[in-house]
Amino acid sequence: MKLAMIGLGKMGANMVKRLLKGGHDVVAYDLNESAILAAESDGAKGARTLPEVVEQLAPTRVVWVMVPSGDPTEKTVSSIADLLSAGDIIIDGGNSNYKDTMRRAEMLQTRGIHYVDVGTSGGVWGLTEGYSMMVGGSDEALAHIRPILETLAPAPDLGWGHVGPSGSGHFVKMVHNGIEYGLMQAYAEGFEIMRAKQAFNLDLHQIAEIWRFGSVVRSWLLDLTANALKDDADLSDIKGWVADSGEGRWTVFEAIDQDVPAPIITLSLMARFISRQDESYAAKLLAAMRNQFGGHAVKKEE
Known about the structure:
Layout: E1 2-6, H1 10-21, E2 25-29, H2 33-42, E3 45-46, H3 50-55, E4 62-65, H4 71-81, E5 89-92, H5 98-109, E6 114-121, H6 126-129, E7 132-136, H7 139-152, E8 160-164, H8 168-196, H9 204-211, H10 220-231, H11 247-257, H12 263-275, H13 281-294
Parallel strand pairs: 1-2, 1-4, 2-3, 4-5, 5-6, 7-8
Antiparallel strand pairs: 6-7
């Protein structure tokens, strides 16, 4: 099957490699010329403009967009849609807000273009392990792109599924990432508690390896934690600054909108915000208040 991949970041480039290995023909496009050259060296057919992308595809055209959410996705989808025809398919594999996805799908439907949202998880390991994909869109579009999804997935019948109409794929991926925040925070806090118990001189990498087998807390995240702790359990080369892609925030907003209590996901998001503060004004004010009402000592800036 032939398709185009627009956006050759780490995940997009690896998806191209997996698709090529699976026997698909891929037209590769990116704003970065070196990314296109790398894809061509892997066996893809490069394109330097969006019209050239479309020229290399035959109906039914399938264009997979793998660019950052927000304005980059908006502009890319709008530009490529102007070049496509009724019956063609645009796949958004990025981390778009599901409400934007629903709006885009409705707009494209008036032109007869299918819009499929594929919430994609797997990161840099997807090339070898396969990608988990949560798919939203019409049955008709899904039937056409099924061979692509079966190639990208861990197995043709594992790790992916059609979860509902347009927007549902990105909605499920949003919640997936919210859960991920909570799991990661729990591991991080647990290992910090063990590290703080200096009297036991615990080997954190050893403990991670123990838990990886037979334990009820074993998981792929724990496997990755063990990898991170293997060479340097103190993580001396890493700054404790944690970003968020936005999907954790959206999950919290959705929980509020639906009156669903989600304290773990919410607090894990707040913890990421805390990690970005070199110094907390709130903590300073807490210290000042304790000093005011109880005369408790405060530490002065050096």
